[in-house]
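Box S1 | Example of a co-folding query
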Amino acid sequence: MMKKALMIILMAGFIILPMIIWSRTLYFNASGGLPINIYLGIYIYDFGRLLALIGFMLIFFQYVLSSRIRFIERTVGLDKIMRLHRIFGIVGLVMILFHPSATFIGNFLQEQDQLFFHPLKIVGLVALLLLCLMAGIAILYKYVNIKYETWKNVHRFIYIVFPIAFFHSLRLGSDTQKLSLKIFWWILFGLYLIILIYKIAMRFYIRSRPFNITRVLQETHDIWSLFFKGKIKSYKPGQFLFIQLIRNGKVSESHPFTISSSPTRDELSISVKSVGDFTSTIKNCKPSELAYIDMPYGVFSFLNYDAKNFVFIAGGIGITPFISMLRYMYDTKLGRNIILIWGNKTSKDIAFKDELEKMASEMPSFKIIHVMSSQQDWQGEKGFINAEKIKKYVSDFKDTQFFVCGPPIMMKNVIRDLKQLGVTKNHIHYERFALR
Ligand SMILES: Cc1cc2nc3c(=O)[nH]c(=O)nc-3n(C[C@H](O)[C@H](O)[C@H](O)COP(=O)(O)OP(=O)(O)OC[C@H]3O[C@@H](n4cnc5c(N)ncnc54)[C@H](O)[C@@H]3O)c2cc1C
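Box S1 (continued) | Returned holo structure for flavin-adenine dinucleotide
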């Protein structure tokens, strides 16, 4: 809570400080008996400067948020980071798009000569075009088939957009000629470099400590678990990692997976459903092959929101954070009331079946409800997880923490149902299995 408050104060301060410096110039501009078009021109031009200052700060925030900084990720959580990232991206782009037109109109009204092909303006235009490309891909990927790798590579432009925008504003901006803002801008650039160095150092660190694959285990017809040996960093059950597999000397793209093992056990594991290019090759992994693992990330752990009662609601492969938490609870003999409501298409999709049954038989406070959406002869609950089914098995909606993980549409509906059942927002926790 303290960390969150500190972050909000810091971010607000980063926006307000340049605004204060900017506002101190307004009084001087407004003085003197000037014609109306000049006044108007001054105000529009000043507004254009303000757009640039805030837009620049938002680009900086975008850079920080997408840099996978553990402190931020653990404080805010991935989902909130992504939401902020989207909002800052859109607002920042709109501001920066309006900045050149506002300064142009402002100068025009003030009857000032304008140099269109000024090299520093072209530098700013390059940053703007790169930003538009990033935003375009981020918006369009939902409608056009854009591969994740392409989307990610275009997102990496942020590493060059920031220094370009910095150079443009430092050399051309009138506000950045003031010592106070100049110092602040250089501090931002210093932070940019520190983060860049941190990222490069992390990369070296991770690559200097590869993990060994020890086992590959088939859990269901399309889910495989990989087990690893190596320098495992301490983690909480429910957190996730980023993995790169090394095959034939080639390092794969980094992919996020929930850690399905429990910190109470020696081996580290992930459990992967085959859905695409990378995940469909998991079954071909061999013991002794190497992997780079960057861990741990995420705040989706019951340890962060401890309570007497827990309801875990999973859809398909969304079981992985719960199996990790359940393994932890089982190993530590934690006396909590837990209900797992797990939706799958058919009983063939149920992973960890024997282990879960063993846990349920040995932990009287743990109950599993399977819900099958596409199996007519299933003897238990059928259809989708909804308010009616949740109400049937859960009696206490006040002193219970609810955790939800599964396909996006299932999560959306379940979270809506939980709210309708009177569960407050701070008792609902969820993890999306998507980074965009
Ligand atoms: C926090 C988190 C935890 C996850 N935990 C699990 C888990 O425990 N088990 C599991 O099976 N899956 C998990 N996933 C999903 C898993 O990361 C994707 O299914 C996998 O990366 C898809 O890769 P692909 O190339 O096989 O599929 P593709 O068909 O290429 O991609 C399918 C979708 O997966 C996403 N994706 C693809 N490549 C990447 C990448 N390099 N990085 C991030 N996302 C990508 C994209 O949204 C894409 O549209 C998790 C995802 C997140 C964000």
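The longest helix spans residues 78-109. Residues 78, 148, 240, 253-258, 270-273, 275-279, 317, 320, 431, 433-436 surround flavin-adenine dinucleotide (CB under 6 Å).
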